[in-house]
Amino acid sequence: MKIYDHKKIEKKWQTVWDKKKAYKTSNKSKKKKYYVLDMFPYPSGVGLHVGHPKGYIGSDVFARVKRMQGFNVLHPMGYDAFGLPAEQYAIEHNINPRQAVEKNVKTFEKQLSVIGLSYDWDRRVNTTDPEFYKWTQWIFLRIYNSWYNKSVDKAEPIKKLIKIFEKSGNEKVNAVCDSNIAIFTAREWKLKPPKQKQDMLMKYRLAYEGYAQVNWCPKLGTVLANDEVLDSSSGPVSERGGYPVEKKDMRQWFMRITAYADRLLVGLDGLNWSAHIKEIQKNWIGKSEGLIFSAKVKESDMVIKTFSSHYQTCYADTFFVIAPDHPLLPKLLEGRPEKDAVLKKAKEIVEKKNKQGADYKDIDGIFTGRYATDSLGNGDLPIWVASFALKDYGTGIVKCSAHDERDFAFAKKFNIKLKEVVEPIFIAHADKLDSNLPFVERNAISAVIKHWSEDKYLVIKWKKTNWYTFVTGGIKNNETPEQAAIREIKEETGYTNLRIKTVLPPCHSKFYHIPKKQNRFAHFSNFYFELVDGQKVEISNTETEKHEVLWMTIDEIRKCLTPEGQLRDLDIVLGTQKAYIGNGMLTEPEEFKGRESDEVREEIAEWLVKKGLAVKKINYKMRDAIFARQRYWGEPIPLQYDEEGIIRELPEKKLPLVLPPVKSYQPTGTGESPLGSVKDWVKNGYETNTMPGWAGSSWYFLRYMDPKNKKAFANKSAIKYWKNVDMYVGGQEHATGHLLYSRFWHKVLKDYGLVVTEEPFQSLRNQGLIMAADGRKMGKRYGNAINPDDIVKTFGADTLRVYEMFMGPFEASLPWSTDNIVGSRRFIERVWKMSQKMKILKNVSKIDPKLETLLHKTIQKVNNDIENFAFNTCISSMMILLNEMEKQENIHKKDFELFVKILSPFAPHVTEQIWHDFGHTTLLVLEPWPKADKNKIKETEVTFVIQINGKVRGEFQAKAEISEDEARKAIEHMPEIKKWIEGGIKRFIFIPKKLINIVV
RNA sequence: GCCCGAGUGGCGGAACCGGUAUACGCGCACGACUUAAAAUCGUGUCUCGCAAGGGAUGUGGGUUCGAUUCCCACCUCGGGCACCA
């Protein structure tokens, strides 16, 4: 018997596959295509740990199965090598970043090569290769030369927009563009000087130049995306290096991704991605439907606009808040004596906000001295400045009301008048309400009663329900609510000498009245009484039996009081109430009085729009993406500025615009990129910013389709054949970055017919992390990294692969355990030994039919589980099969070969060797994938579980098709069942092929 | 704060659509082989109980003949967003 020598076997077959080009993929194939893609890595200098290949192994297993299933599989690998880490490394070691990248790529490939991944290495791409980034620049220019035409809902050439301007100006243009655009006619357009034309077009382009407040990191000398900034105790810091980050206004390039907000949202529906990632993207896009209201500023010709999505309470609005950095603020203050003071304070507010770590709950604000009148008739409302109004969301001005937590808190702090238009409806035990019954309405009172000398309030404890409430009761006919309250207090507590302090606002309650079996809708009039003294009359026995009268402190009450509405009454009495933002009965406008605010929301919107009081508007949280870095190591932006500042794009022939050598990669620290110190570069007027890290990764998957093409980013027929990625595997940390940006670019390309699908990645799976044994993240910096090279050396690549797939669910983050890996090694060794045994024969006379059933069931399960990326259960089912085969006297060679085939994607080397030892001359990795034999899976005999009252009491073998009556007869006399059913059977539940439950 | 997701043996985890909870693996215990150990193979391994039987899937309740699975409340952990009107 040969010894299992993983080193020899793995080396041998890796060489053979390589020589025979087993994984080479052709673009000219009649087979159906399948594109399995890994998120390409950033080749870092520190090398891999065992966590890195997990995703690659998963996608490799999947790609191997698809290949064996007869698909033409595209499974490539490449490098995303622009960006900060390589540049940092270059600065630290004073070498060209390109050298660092080359070195790191070599290390990376050496480490990957021993794992046996089935990539077509001939298609490898590298974003820093000029032949690659030529096309990144080309696509950039395409986006730059586009605007978004909302009328046809797609990107169109800017030339078309210029034609429209020349013909009829911009009034009728329906575009996604800068919100601040003056209307001009065709004549006015033609008269504009070139620079003004350029500036105007910039407001429409999908890639545009502008100024923005950005996360500026002085130490790194660059701008960082929000997801590259982390919060720390000392304020925001860079993800890399942990250097301080501040806000700064800088010239930037942007991508108008917001033009695609809706398509990015809608497109999610058709994708086979995890619900979790879709949810993250959905929240990130943050669609919100609302209304725009206008208001006239008093003693001025200004009109201000506000956006609201909680417009059902718009008649409660009592003040405005404008963002402190709003461009209209200075204009608003024009001619006001407090102008300078307000602007100074506004500046302070902005600065305070920018200094992170400040507690924004502590909102600062200042009154502008201006009032505005809204068209709803809410009166003259003061305009305040506060940082919670965001200049980039909605209109930058908020109309505020008592029915918003933040507005409410702000108003309380600055003593601004509030008004409520919703009377709260509290629902007690919503699940108990009977949806079939109508609501029976009742009028009632509730009273907060203060003790005559102590700081205590009267609470009633209901003996039956153990509820604690204030005095409460129904209103009789011919009684005012106040009379009812006084009567109820007397009846329930005996106190008579009381004085009304306040009439509290009404509220309502819906609940299920258990004794009467009714849905109740009670309308409460609420009062606050104070007792003058303890004078009391006798109360009836029927009352004392029901309840007990208690005096409690506020803290005690808060702990035990049952009705929500009464807690609110107490808060109003104490002045500690919060905004009510829930559902309730509207008191205004008159047309909707008495109706429920949540219910009439849509109706109110229509009504307001119809009356011309508001306009519908959709807002998104998502902002345009900054597309520039003040660094060296990125794709140059292929644009040239002349002396007048006119921008010229580089013609396609001149692409790629190659990064020039520089003396120092050190950031200048002024915000300008090292390119600013290259004389020729500046003389030529080239843009000194470079593209951000996400440029190349936004389209690289298209380059794999035709990686060597010199005439296009990929040949049309290649794009038509490969279409898009069928299965994409990578980390979920890219949810709001790469995965969104690539979808955006893909949609732009789709609008031009340059790609054929709306979405780039049809299915997406996210591998979980492998944590270190100590529970922390694995990494060099923690000193807990396990090198895959060591594991491959000791246990073999097949063992590593099987173990990483067997550890647990693919998407879960799990701790590494070098102890547990021996289980996977034993499994492979047992497979090996089994293959060497004499009991595997070509002609076996007696084959256990149960083994055949198990074999084919296993094939079926592996098939299903692989589609679901449930690799861990694939392996466990194959282990079960192996356990069973080991118990057999003899096994048919054909059967064992089926097992070897389904194991092959997980452990390709050892299975290839076994296949070869069995006398085959073909490559196992290219063999057809087995199908489960349906006839062999069919079970004729099944085991029923017998339960009595849901508890397992026995088992019972029977034909699969046994009828309920037959089963009943058969088991009634079984002794272990008989003893339970002597008292008679109430119910007999029969689940075919599975279970019988007898209720006694 | 808001929005997701998850909580099952000593450990990693399994359980399809509501139908035998703890598959598979690790570990541990015992046994076989061995002078011995390792490796390998075999047996056992949630818990209380002598047994009959009872109790366990974060906690408490509900729906159901039957709940890890569905519903409600709470606790803990992980992730996303964070003044988004």
Tell me what the structure shows:
By secondary structure, the chain is of the alpha+beta class. The protein has 33 helices and 39 strands. The strands form eleven sheets. Strands 11, 12, 13, 14, 15, 16 and 26 form a seven-stranded mixed sheet that branches. Strands 21-18-23-22-17-25 form a six-stranded mixed sheet. Strands 2-1-30-31 form a four-stranded parallel sheet, with helices on one face. Helix 1 packs across helix 30 (908-917), helix 27 (849-867) runs antiparallel to helix 28 (871-887) and helix 27 (849-867) packs parallel to helix 29 (893-903). The model has no long low-confidence stretch (mean pLDDT 90). The structure holds one RNA strand of 85 nucleotides.
Shape: flat
Tell me the structural class: alpha+beta
Extended strand count: 39
| Helix residue percentage | 25-40%
Q: Strand portion, in percent? A: 15-25%
Number of helices: 33
Low confidence ranges: none
Q: Could you report the average pLDDT, rounded to the nearest whole number?
A: 90
Q: What's the oligomerization state? A: single chain
Instruction: Output the radius of gyration.
Output: 37 Å
Straight-line N-to-C gap: 61 Å
Main beta sheet:
7 strands, mixed
